[in-house]
Amino acid sequence: LKDRLKDPSLLKTASFVDGGWLDSSDFFEVRNPADRSLVAKVADVGAGGAHRAVDAAARAFASWKQVSVYERARLVRRWHDLIVEHAADLGAIITAEMGKPLKEARGEVVYGAGFVSWSAEEAMRVHGETLSTPFPGSRGWTLRQPVGVVACITPWNFPSAMITRKCAPALAAGCTVVVKPAPETPLSALALAELAKRAGFPAGVFNVICGEAETLGPVMTKADAVRMIGFTGSTEVGKLLMRQAADGVKRVSLELGGNAPFLIMDDADVEAAADGVMASKFRAAGQTCVSANRIIAQEGVADALIKALRVRVEKLKVGSGFEERTDIGPLIHDEAVERVAALVDDARERGAKIITGGQSLAGKMGGAFYAPTLIEGGSDVSLSMASNEIFGPVASVYRAADEAEMIRLANDTRYGLAAYLYTRDVGRVHRMSEALEFGMVGVNAPMVGSPATPFGGMKESGIGREGGKWGVEEFTELKFVLLGGV
Ligand code: ADP
Predict the structure, then answer these.
(1) Example GO molecular function term (predicted)?
(2) Closest ligand 1 atom number to CA of residue 232
(3) pLDDT digits (tens, 9 = 90+) for 207-218
(4) Are the C-beta atoms of residues 39 and 12 closer than 8 Å to each other?
(5) 255 counts as catalytic
(6) What predicted TM-score, i.e. pTM, was given to this entire model?
């Protein structure tokens, strides 16, 4: 990997604590899922390292919260500029540790950097209000103050953007941060730490610790100094963290699993809908929480949609993310391939039609590859892949009769993150987007995330929103001050 980087000093293997690099004699391996080769050995700093990071963040908070928001925003902005300047290297690091194609990896870096510049600007607009009070001779007003030390636990599918999306608004709002990245993708997090160091954040304001989740996690969720847990990952782990946070009544912001329905109505532009499915389903080889999980087509367009999808899926090129022409990289590891294969086997056994793909390429290609797959599930929504997040390059299409049935099917899940709707009927746009129990609805649009807009879920998909003014407000406390005797 070093040879691919213009600036090899972005490759770090120690944790970043209190403004310096913290090493350890314990380590874990990071492997490239495309060929299982060793990318790096990363220090595991254990519970001791986690305590040091939390203590450093708590000390730094005392002064960081007093720094003017103009100065905080200036440093956050500098971090943004450095991230953009090194986007190619950061992209290569993502591809090496998690496998997504280089063009997507660079796209992620730029997308993630968008949250950094947005946060720098938005934090300057955080303000209180004056309120009317019922008591004669009194005045009342509100303050928005930083929450305190924030512990961020992030996943491997967006190793860079999930960190910037949480940390930039937290830092700009005046919080200090301890990040624990996924063990699969620590190098992206540590490269961001190196750039934060160069940007000039004071020691302890931004910390990244690597090691075993079961050891570091409880230190982060239990420490008195930590006032908020920001998490993106599985619903199962999110629930565990919420339980741990409950003891200290810590604030939680959770971005959890999804089971996105992608609804295509009879009146939709089928070609545009097929393009939308491809963008939503096959980005990061289907390993995103907003990936279309259940493609539900109204009877009148189902055949045309399947035909249009087949042509597109069969054109996808599978390979290493470093190859220019690759559309679909490997999954994160071999167990992920086995999980996806089991879901497809379940569908096959229940009589679903495999139109193309449907097999693991892990043996043949020497890495964690699965063939891009199109499945026709008919009206059988009891398939395991209809109720579980597929997290792989497998598109499954179901059929439904009318609007009411489609809404019922779409909402028949414990998740509520993203939903997609393709229709050209403006009445339908309103009726259906209002009826869908999801935090984000893309109408004739397959991507719903941006720095300016709220990202987050309903039901078991999470609590809180990232992005926009809401993403900055999450990291503030609303305080009321009443002044008497005026
Ligand atoms: P996935 O199954 O996609 O890897 P996870 O929810 O397991 O999703 O992982 C998301 C993040 O949560 C990662 O950083 C992972 O290390 C972390 N994590 C997993 N288990 C725990 C735990 N028990 N305590 C704290 N963090 C955890």
Answers:
(1) oxidoreductase activity, acting on the aldehyde or oxo group of donors, NAD or NADP as acceptor
(2) 10
(3) 999 999 999 999
(4) no
(5) yes
(6) 0.97
